Amino acid sequence: MPKQYFFQAGTFQDLSYAELVSVFEIYGLNKDVIHKFTDDIFLIKSKEISEDLLMNIFNRLGGFIRLGYVIDNLDTFLEKFTEQKSRVVFGLSVLGRRDRGDIAFLKKLGNELKRGFKEYNISSRFLFPRGKDLELNAAQIVNNAVLKKGFELCILRNQEEEIYSSTLLVQDIEGYIKRDTQRPHSDIDMGVLPPKLARIMINLCSLKEGTIWDPFCGSGTVPMESALLGYNFLASDIDENAIYYTEENVKWLNEQGDLGNIVYEAFRLDISQPDRVVIKKLKNTNISGIVCEPYMGPAQKNVISEEKADGLLNDVKSLYKNLFEMLDEEIGVRGVKMVLIIPSYKTYSGWKTFGIREIVSNRWEVLNSYYSPSRDLKWSRKNSIITRNIFILHRT
Ligand SMILES: C[S@@+](CC[C@H](N)C(=O)[O-])C[C@H]1O[C@@H](n2cnc3c(N)ncnc32)[C@H](O)[C@@H]1O
Question: Which of 137, 273, 337, 345 has its CA 20 to 30 A from that of 327?
């Protein structure tokens, strides 16, 4: 039987699933090999896909926390560590369905494993999830070098079964936090995309290579993540400061590590009154993907009135209408993938948004239902009054 692997999704599981399908597509892999075990755990059963390839895939994903493999025989798995010369550091986690006595169960299992190692004269350290959590967080795993000095045993559980598995990789949370909070420039008033979401959106374009354009680049989250994934990029914005911020942030990113030989350009462009010379240049550029979030109004902390939501939505709508007019009539893009955000605002009388067909013509195929059975791809923080609705489009 081929080795089975699992991908554990982050908070926005439908979005993560769509991202996984898209990245599989980049590598020529069929989505049928992805089996849903729980809402956030996906099993991969395939003879054709190597562990190295799955690790490469995992490393480029924004919406996933863990990659691991299913353990066939727990005794054989544990035996490997009885030959280890140094102290074994191990952790235990339950992923998926939780049971009442899980905390006690994990403690008991951890202590049994410790005793087992002791019988082989091997010292071990057992890491336990924090508080009431049943899974170690990525920082615990990375900071204690669990995957180098030992293992994380994950118990995957759904309504029917329980599977033992071992973690291979965890998400580079620190990298995302650093890019979010330590880059030289961030324009909070204009709104900044979470880097993980930017990465998910770029991945949703399923592009092997090429140039990604963000026409509302702000301080450059999409360009930064595009560059890290090896794409060339174009970044434009109405605001000169945004161009400067993007350039400086990308320079900073390059100083942190090698971005490789990517080609990029940041320039001013008002989508509502596009400059002829810039349009001509865009027409002559091979754009493979467009990824963006437009200006969605000032940050809102409280529920707003319906009138206010209508005003904000009309502004976003007209910005998008201008963008699509320019893409269709002036630049004449063909064959591009586009991933964009339409906001929903929470008002006193419920959520308000607008439909994708209010801004795009039938020349643009909406691919959400192919990438996600639920069609609805949302990114929304708990208690937030704004939801980001993500759409995947293809200009035929
Ligand atoms: C929400 S921000 C984008 C944030 C960006 N994704 C980031 O993570 O930093 C929206 C951007 O749209 C730009 N913008 C607003 N109106 C525009 C227009 N007519 N043409 C081009 N850019 C515009 C704003 O200057 C702002 O930088």
Answer: 345
CATH architecture of 179-395: 3-Layer(aba) Sandwich (3.40)
Shortest-distance atom of ligand 1 to CA 322: 19
* Dihedral pair phi/psi, residue 338, rounded to 5°: -140, 135
219 C-alpha to center of ligand 1: Å? Answer: 9
Distance CA 394, CA 339 (A): 9
Q: Tell me the two tokens of residue 77.
A: 């798995």
Measured in angstroms, how far is the CA atom of residue 227 from the centroid of ligand 1? 19
CB distance 94 to 135 below 8 Å? yes
Domain with CATH 3.30.2130 in the chain: 4-173
Q: Is the separation of the CB atoms in 253 and 227 below 8 Å?
A: yes
Q: Which ranges in the chain are annotated with CATH 3.40.50.150? A: 179-395
CB of 124 closer than 6 angstroms to any ligand 1 atom:
no
Residue 163: other Cβ atoms inside 10 A:
18
| pLDDT confidence of residue 258 | 75
| Amino acid code (one letter) for 152 | E
Give the Cα separation of 195 and 337 in Å (integer).
20
User: Does residue 293's CB lie within 6 angstroms of at least one atom of ligand 1?
Assistant: yes
| Residue 39 DSSP code | S
- 4-28 burial code (b ≥16 CB/10 A, e <16): bbbbbbbebbbbbbbbbbbbbbbee
Architecture of domain 4-173: 2-Layer Sandwich (3.30)
How many whole angstroms from 294 Cα to the centroid of ligand 1?
5
Whole-number Å distance, alpha carbon 59 to ligand 1 midpoint, is 28
Long-range own/partner contacts, residues 303-310 (CB < 8 A, 24 or more apart): 303/346, 303/347, 303/348, 303/385, 304/345, 304/346, 304/347, 304/348, 304/385, 305/347, 305/348, 306/347, 306/348, 306/349, 306/352, 308/345, 308/347, 309/345, 309/347, 309/352, 310/352
pLDDT tens digits for 125-137?
999 998 889 999 9
The whole-number average pLDDT for the span 148-152 is: 97
Q: Which helix (H) or strand (E) holds 314?
A: helix 306-325
Question: Is the Cβ–Cβ distance between 125 and 90 less than 8 Å?
Answer: yes
Nearest to 154 by CA among 51, 40, 17: 40
Alpha-carbon span 357 to 110, nearest angstrom: 54
